[in-house]
Design goal:
This protein has 159 residues and is an alpha+beta fold. The strands form 2 sheets. A 5-stranded antiparallel sheet has the order 1-2-3-6-7, covered by helices on one side. Strands 4-5 form a two-stranded antiparallel sheet. The radius of gyration is 27 Å and the shape is globular. 11% of the residues are buried.
Length: 159
Amino acid sequence: MAEFLNSESSEIQSSSAEVQSSAVAESAVASSSASNDVDTSHMPLEKRTKVSDVDSRTRDLEITEKDGTKIKVQITSPSLRDAETIDAKRSVVVEEDGETSIVLTPAKFHEALFKMFNNNSLLINDKVTDDVIGWDFFEKHAKETYHWFMDQAETFLTD
């Protein structure tokens, strides 16, 4: 009878230890998940962006907006001829009443930069999207994101 009681007591202790172990594990997972939800609203841009070279012509870009939206996309360097053509869209020479002036054309320049982004690689919050990098895309996101992506694209035009 004593053996039976000792055996039953051991099983109860073992079962109790498993329940406690399981509770500790669940607590660790919950606190780990909570620590991944980082408040990015006050982080400087440098802490919310990442650039990785895939190869000599392709880069992975990643930005987390202040609201927590994470955007990832690849960008590919244009050929030398295409880079010169894109660069030429920065401005246009205008002649009016015998006067020559240079007019900046940032919209045309940025539209040319949009074509450097690989839209098939675009992820929003780690999910595939049908969005395309362009004016409509940037209307839905922070202006800071637009400027950062354009700055990154422009680095492929200069040596």
